[in-house]
Amino acid sequence: MNPILSIENLATSFHTDEGRIQAVSNVSFEVHKGKTLGLVGESGCGKSVTALSIMRLLPKPSGIIDSGRILFQGMDLAVLPAREMQSIRGKRIAMIFQEPMTALNPVHRIEKQLGEVFQIHFPEMGKKQKAEEVLSLLNRVGIPNPEGCAKAYPHQISGGMRQRVMIAMALAGKPEILIADEPTTALDVTIQAQILELIKSLQEETGMAVIFITHDLGVIAEVCDEVVVMYAGKIAEKARVKDLFYNPAHPYTQGLLSSIPRLDSKRKSKLSIIQGMVPNLADLPKGCRFENRCPMAMGLCKSEPPDILQIGDSHWVSCYLFEKGNRNE
Ligand SMILES: Nc1ncnc2c1ncn2[C@@H]1O[C@H](COP(=O)(O)OP(=O)(O)O)[C@@H](O)[C@H]1O
Ligand SMILES: [Mg+2]
Fold first, then answer.
1. Region for residue 179 given its phi and psi (left: phi exceeds 0; alpha: psi -120 to 50; beta: otherwise)
2. DSSP string, 16-82
């Protein structure tokens, strides 16, 4: 099946006081209709910058797409004129963010804010129909008292309800792609599970594709079909979710996996965490970016960055362990 979105060799950088830093390097992946692609990695690995590049919402003027293509329905979003991008952003491709409070206007009632979204996407819609659509959407995202919620100001509802309102706003334009950037990170575990369920069921209903961004591989297992593991702005590993969990190849993926708490584990011992930190993008090592934290590092890893290699059907890894001659099978 043809992908609905195809990212090819995306590179995005920022001009900062420390000079130019490349936050995303050579990132490629495809997103399919009705499927969920997970983007995972520790904080600072370039997940949000990848999403903001797709949405063309990079901070101006410091953030720039240097190269690569973002193909969506015959268009390259990386170079699409701003006006045309405006008709896609929020409508055909919508995004929800980690902290809904920053995206909602505190001085307007929910109904007004949602109504404005309908106004933008469907200017021909009458006032009465708009009000009905607002309530029906709030109902669809599982808000128990849609009328009450519509009349409320953002601070009058809970964090979980605010995130549902954000999802409602994102869905108003009937997007073909929903980008969810850590949508549950600020929520407690029970609410988190409810929001994940909601996104899944809305996806089944609408057939939209979802890009789900999280630092938590545990969440990936719940919702994703395919996974892209990012480390320091690059792809470390890319695989179908089953392959990633049963057959993780990159030492970074293995490290992330061993830090997920397991329900079936009788161990009371501390979870292993990956020692060390993501390198500073302004001062990157010459070789593999994970080298200084990698338990498997070899001499070669210090001198040159590894290429991305295909090691199975839809399974890719960027690691010298998988280069011919280095595989210990
Ligand atoms: N507005 C910005 N200005 C300068 N650098 C930025 C900006 N936003 C992000 N970066 C850089 O890009 C890196 C990746 O950021 P981000 O994509 O937000 O990470 P995450 O994977 O946590 O979403 C950061 O570590 C930072 O170095
Ligand atoms: Mg982020």
1. beta
2. ETTEEEEEEEEEEEEE-TT-EEEEE-STTSSHHHHHHHHHT-PPTTTEEEEEEEEEETTEETTT--H
Q: Give distance in angstroms: CA of 216 to centre of ligand 2.
A: 12
Digit-coded pLDDT (tens) for 48-103:
999 999 999 999 999 999 999 999 999 999 999 999 999 999 999 999 988 776 78
Q: Which of 49, 98, 212, 289 gets mutated to test ligand 1 (max ligand atoms within 8 A of its CB)?
A: 49
Please name the residue ranges forming H helices in the chain. Answer: 47-55, 82-88, 100-103, 110-121, 127-140, 146-151, 159-171, 189-206, 217-223, 241-246, 251-258, 299-303
Q: Which two tokens stand for residue 227?
A: 């996974």
Rounded Cα distance between 301 and 299, Å, is 5
CA dihedral 237, 241, 243, 247 (to 10 degrees): 70
Using CA atoms, how far residue 191 sits from 133, 143, 263, in Å, is 25, 13, 19
- pTM higher than 0.85 for the full model? yes
